[in-house]
Amino acid sequence: MSRHSRGASGLCGVLALDKPYGMTSHDVVNRVRQITGERRVGHAGTLDPAATGLMLVGVGAATRLSEYLTGHDKGYDARIVFGVATDTDDAQGRVLASAADEELAAIMRTVDAQAVLDEFTGMLEQLPPAYSAIKKNGVVAYKAAREGKAIELEARPITVHAARLDAMGVQDIELADADGETCMRTLPYWDVHFDVSKGTYIRALARDIGAYLGCGSHLGSLRRTSVASTSIEEACSIDELSNCAEEGRALPWCDPAKLLGFPVIELGEQQVQCVANGRELTDVDAGEGMVSCTCGHKLLAVYNFVSGACRPATVIPGGVVGVV
């Protein structure tokens, strides 16, 4: 595959990728760099290595849109496994506490699962997991936790727009204790679809639901299914992206204006010049807030309407491709 020199590919767009299990978000970024030959690559929302699903990845100057994309609501398919709490709040952690089989069976037999999930919808205060990328006083939480010096994190406001029970069952789980010794248990699970606001940790929701029931729980698996109006069905695999590049086909760019979700202004010739020079736009009316400025099949800028004035927030020379 022919590659441009790093950072000089001329590409500028946003990709919707289906992250596979086991890759870190940084792994995905590096792989896109290799495929596109572009050094300026960044994602708009981290997924843990054990999670799969939708990642929006900016290439070239389109990385400047990440600040807008990270604020979107997101959808997830999650498996909550009951009976065992772990130090990481997911299946990769070590057991902190576990419920006896009889106690667990009694709870699962009598609980109304959807009613419990309804208790975890709306505006909530959520304590982030000890193993998270949050920084406090310059210290990264997960690094401190790995060293046995977990830092005290503050609860954060989040919104769970919906929590829908999709399935229930039991599965065999391999667990590791504090010494790393493993064993197998058959534990009950709920498969739940969550629609949540920015900053929500599904691991923490799984942890808190088990604590609410008094039996402990952790996140067994996670798949991100949507970011704002973009669905996982619109995403391509990394292998598919690589094939496109190797065969010289156009890369599957997303529509950046749709991704942003702002009102769209289609620019005329004089307005294009104003945007290129970073000047205020006149003779436009879109109320208050952010707007996407497009011309043809490119997003040229994001402008901000404040007190009747339309001023540039982010201007991208050459534009972001993919506008439909």
3D structure, described in words:
The chain is α+β, with helices and mostly antiparallel strands and 324 residues long. Helices cover 23% and strands 38% of the residues. The strands form four sheets. Strands 1, 2, 3, 4, 7, 10, 11, 12 and 13 form a nine-stranded mixed beta sheet that branches. It has a four-stranded mixed beta sheet with strand order 14-15-16-17. A two-stranded antiparallel sheet has the order 5-6. The longest helix is centred in the N-terminal third of the chain and has 12 residues, at 25-36. The chain is elongated. It starts with 12 loop residues before the first strand and ends with a strand. Mean pLDDT is 92; it is low at 1-6.
Characteristic terms for this protein:
9 helices; 324 residues; elongated; four-stranded mixed sheet; 17 strands; alpha+beta
Summarize the structure.
The chain has nine helices and 17 strands. With about 325 residues, the chain is an alpha+beta fold. It starts with 12 loop residues before the first strand and ends with a strand.
Number of helices: 9
How does the helix and strand content classify structurally? alpha+beta
Helix content: 10-25%
Give the CA-CA distance, first to last residue: 29 Å
Report the strand count.
Answer: 17
| Relative strand content | 35-45%
What radius of gyration results from the CA coordinates?
Answer: 23 Å
Overall pLDDT score: 92
What is the secondary structure topology, with strand pairs?
Elements lengths: L12 E7 L5 H12 L4 E3 L8 E8 L6 H4 L4 E9 L1 E3 L8 E4 L2 H10 L2 H7 L2 E5 L8 E2 L2 E2 H6 L9 E21 L5 E15 L5 H12 L3 E11 L2 E2 L6 H9 L9 H5 L3 E3 L2 H8 L12 E7 L2 E9 L2 E13 L3
Parallel strand pairs: 3-12, 14-15
Antiparallel strand pairs: 1-3, 2-3, 4-11, 4-12, 5-6, 7-10, 8-9, 10-11, 12-13, 15-16, 16-17
